[in-house]
Amino acid sequence: MPFAELPVATLRDGVSLADARSHFDEDGDPRDTPGLSAAVNTVLGQPMWWAAALQQACERSPFAA
Description:
It is a single chain. The protein is mainly alpha-helical. It is 38% helix and 0% strand. It is built from 1 helix and no strands. The protein is elongated and about 50 Å long.
C-alpha cells in the first residue's frame, strides 16, 4: 500500500545533529547547545498538537476506515 493512502499526518520538521559529538558531554549527556532545545521542542510539539487535534476530530466525527 502506498504511504499516500494511509490515514496519517506527516511532520515536516526534524532535528539535525551535525557534528553529533559536540552535542554530548564526556558522560554522554546531551548539552543544551543554542537552538537544539527549540528544535527538539518543535519536533516533539508537532505530534502532540496533531494527537490533540485528531482526538477532538474523532470525537466529533469518528473516522471510518
